[in-house]
From TrEMBL:
Lineage: Bacteria, Pseudomonadati, Pseudomonadota, Alphaproteobacteria, Sphingomonadales
CDD domains, A to Z: crotonase-like (cd06558)
InterPro entries in the record: 3-OHacyl-CoA_DH_NAD-bd, 3HC_DH_C, 6-PGluconate_DH-like_C_sf, ClpP/crotonase-like_dom_sf, Enoyl-CoA_hydra/iso, NAD(P)-bd_dom_sf
Name the UniProt record assigns to this protein: Putative fatty acid oxidation complex alpha subunit
Entry GO MF terms: (3S)-3-hydroxyacyl-CoA dehydrogenase (NAD+) activity; enoyl-CoA hydratase activity; isomerase activity; NAD+ binding
Subunit description: Monomer.
Annotated keywords: Fatty acid metabolism, Isomerase, Lipid degradation, Lipid metabolism, Lyase, Multifunctional enzyme, NAD, Oxidoreductase, Peroxisome
Catalytic activity: a (3S)-3-hydroxyacyl-CoA + NAD(+) = a 3-oxoacyl-CoA + NADH + H(+)
Residue ranges annotated for the 3-hydroxyacyl-CoA dehydrogenase NAD binding domain, each copy included: 295-471
Length: 684
């Protein structure tokens, strides 16, 4: 059992302490250790009650997710673990700190009592992994907190704090942080003194009936689309209401088993680990110093610059915000304030907090104000000459050791860096719009960017609550580069006469919340047309005053509720442009053909990003697409989905499409190799 299990006796209370870093996941060894600890104290006549707790930063964070790749789950399995806790002849008190999640909370529910420190969080987040609580959680939680509340917790996967948990009846006592062991021992002593019969959650009746589930289901309706787990979760909670406990458990186990082997769950587990891998850069070890970022400068107070600024403010980092004109800075600051005030109006922030955040902004009208900042993020117009001019000036103004970052989304970072005498301090920080909301941050490593700078900004991403994905210098970096195919091909199909609604519907059916045409309207056609040469379809739209949703019309017309309807004017712009460009009409495309044409080149481009060393690994590309473009998570991202299709099938599809639709469909050498060797795309 190694060092995982420690047992000790204090007075007449036996303590089972588990120590399995980093998060005490319930691996086979940990399950064995808990069972063994309970057995030892049950066999000891000097022990009258047992406290179960964990060392390190948290109570059990759930099943060891990696073990789900090697089914069946080894013995002792979760049934054995829960039975050991529930059938203990002596009262068991779960003593919780950190997070009691998934199987961890289910274990606590199998104990007789639960105490938790006030900072603890408790939840059943299995839905995020495409599964359901499979260790009795769907049967025991409704018995403690009621069916409706339980369903809500399991469907959202959101943990609750200790105070709320106590209010709900999920735990018996909230104790002071840092005093968990002594408080749990005192609690156990009380239990012994009372000598009451052992309470078991399984013996309780479920409060609430099937009707209570309907309202909860309706609230989370959107969550069901494309995902399999939510429907199974409802069935399991229904079983808690309609079946005796043991039958309910069997039902839960069947449903859990179905989900565990589903491709959706495999995909979501892939994403779980992929998101934690992105920050790991092979040549940047612990020896690389991380520089302190105490003060930031942002150049440009437009939509992007304002959003970027908000990230730093929320992390408590003061920002000097620079604009050229007073009215521009005033407008930018007013927008930030409006955003925060809207949050406050929803009760998610106090007015004092709004003032505190706003107090961290220092407005400025000259780059000279950036002389002492640790990091500058430039977010001005996407024009190379302007950016180079700014970086040349920053080189003269900023102190030695300041990081100079550009938020460029398509321009050559090396060219920008060449305007300075310190290219090793220049890096790309590519935020996604709206920058204060979207969780992705592409960190662009230039030819000369130093390890220190990369290490520092990868860490900084965590501080501002972003997931960093490292990218090399190329047109569009990772997310925009791969997704550009979807945008270009959907326009191309529109020009061939494929109905806009059909194009959007195929992507909706695939799992995107928004189809590509609707997305163009949301981004703004004027934004997208910027920099394009010659006559373009989007240029024609902009010229006709159809700039997208913000003007009430783009590819679609929009009413006051942003509901899209088809437009004769838009249809004419499309046919006129198709005639001008000599594009042949080919409107009758099957859904399958549309899907292939839109998504196969995305996966292919992903393999090119790996081939060229632009992305570190395939799973980073999946994270970039999911977090930057809302790619449906249950597919695992484009690269993981590529394996669902299979490299061979993809290759054949691209080979068929290339002669008709051009070089965007030319298969990469890497994909050809995978198709020949039988390798997996997502493992690249
Ligand atoms: N299994 C395996 N590894 C896990 C894990 C788990 N349940 N939870 C976390 N880890 C690993 C992470 O991969 C990471 O590894 P790395 O250092 O090699 O990258 C390390 O532990 C630390 O994790 P985080 O970086 O996420 O650390 P944080 O401190 O930010 O967050 C946490 C801690 C809140 C516990 C978070 O890790 C988390 O949410 N974990 C998953 C919880 C979960 O989903 N539990 C349910 C599992 S399924 C289940 O229990 C089924 C049951 O019903 C039968």
């Amino acid at each position: 059992m190694g060092d995982v299990l420690t047992t000790r006796v204090v007075g007449n209370v036996g303590i089972v302490e588990i120590d399995s870093p980093p998060v005490n996941a319930l691996s086979t060894d940990v399950r064995s250790a808990v069972i063994e600890g309970l057995r030892i104290h049950n066999a000891d006549d000097a022990v009258a009650a047992i406290v179960l707790l964990c060392a390190g930063r948290t109570f059990f964070a759930g099943a060891d997710i990696a073990e789900f790749d090697n089914l069946p789950i080894r013995q002792p399995d979760f049934d054995a673990l829960m039975a050991a806790a529930e059938s203990s002849a002596k009262p068991v008190v779960a003593a919780i700190h950190g997070t009691a999640l998934g199987g961890g909370l289910e274990l606590a529910l199998s104990c007789n009592y639960r105490v938790a420190v006030s900072s603890a969080k408790l939840g059943l987040p299995e839905v995020n992994l495409g599964i359901l609580p499979g260790a009795g959680g769907t049967q025991r939680l409704p018995r403690l907190v009621g069916a409706g509340v339980a369903l809500d917790m399991i469907l959202t996967g959101k943990p609750v704090g200790a105070a709320k948990a106590a209010e709900m009846g999920l735990i018996d006592q909230v104790v002071e942080d840092g005093k968990l062991e002594e408080a749990a021992l005192a609690f156990a002593q009380d239990v012994i003194a009372q000598g009451a019969p052992l309470p078991k959650v399984r013996d309780k009746a479920v409060a609430g009936g099937l009707d209570d589930l309907e309202a909860v289901k309706a609230t989370h309706k959107r969550q069901f689309k494309g995902f399999k787990a939510p429907g199974h979760i409802v069935q399991a909670v229904e079983a808690a209401i309609t079946l005796p406990f043991d039958e309910g458990l069997r039902r839960e186990k069947d449903l859990f088993g179905e989900l565990l082997v589903s491709r959706e769950s495999e995909a979501q587990r892939h994403v779980f680990f992929a998101q934690r891998l992105t920050a790991k850069v092979p040549d940047i070890g612990k020896d690389v110093p991380i520089l302190p970022i105490r003060k930031v400068g942002v150049i440009g107070a437009g939509t992007m610059g304002g959003g970027i600024t908000m990230n730093f403010l929320q992390a408590g980092i003061p920002v000097t915000l620079v604009e050229m004109k007073q009215e521009a800075i005033d407008r930018g600051i007013a927008t930030i304030r409006k955003n925060y005030e809207r949050t406050a109006a929803k009760g998610r922030m106090t007015t004092d907090q709004v003032e505190q955040l706003m107090g961290l902004i220092t407005p400025a009208l000259s780059l000279d104000a950036l002389a002492d900042v640790d990091l500058v993020v430039e977010a001005v117009f996407e024009e190379i000459s302007i950016k180079k001019d700014i970086f040349g000036k920053l080189d003269a103004i900023c102190r030695d050791g300041a990081i100079l970052a550009s938020n460029t989304s398509f321009l050559d970072l090396n060219d920008i860096a060449s305007a300075t005498k310190r290219p090793e301090w220049v890096v790309g920080l590519h935020f996604f719009s709206p920058a204060n909301v979207m969780p992705l941050l592409e960190v662009v490593r230039g030819a000369h960017t130093s390890k220190e700078v990369i290490g520092t900004v990868m860490k900084l991403a965590g501080t501002i609550k972003k997931t960093p994905v490292l990218a090399g210098v190329c047109h569009g970096f990772i997310a925009n580069r791969i997704m550009e195919h979807l945008i270009v091909q959907s326009q191309q199909m529109a020009l061939e006469g494929v109905p806009l609604r059909t194009i959007d519907k195929v992507m909706n059916d695939y799992g995107f919340a928004m189809g590509p045409i609707a997305m163009l309207d949301l981004i703004g056609l004027d934004v997208l047309v910027h920099g394009a040469e010659g006559r373009t379809l989007m240029g024609d739209f902009v010229e006709a005053g159809r700039r997208g949703q913000k003007t009430g019309k783009g590819f679609y017309d929009y009413d006051a509720d942003r509901k899209a309807t088809l437009s004769d004017e838009a249809a004419k712009i499309i046919t006129d442009f198709a005639a001008y460009a000599g594009i042949k009409s080919d409107p009758d495309q099957s859904d399958e053909a549309i899907l292939k044409r839109l998504l196969y080149p995305v996966v292919n481009e992903g393999t090119k990003c790996i081939e060229e060393g632009i992305a570190l690994r395939a799973s980073d590309i999946d994270v970039a697409a999911i977090l930057g473009y809302n790619w449906p998570v249950f597919t695992g991202g484009p690269m993981f989905w590529g394996d669902t299709i299979g490299a061979k099938v993809l290759l054949a599809g691209l080979q068929e499409l290339e002669p008709r639709y051009g070089p965007a469909f030319k298969p990469s050498a890497l994909l050809e190799k995978l198709a020949a060797d039988g390798g997996e795309i997502a493992k690249l």
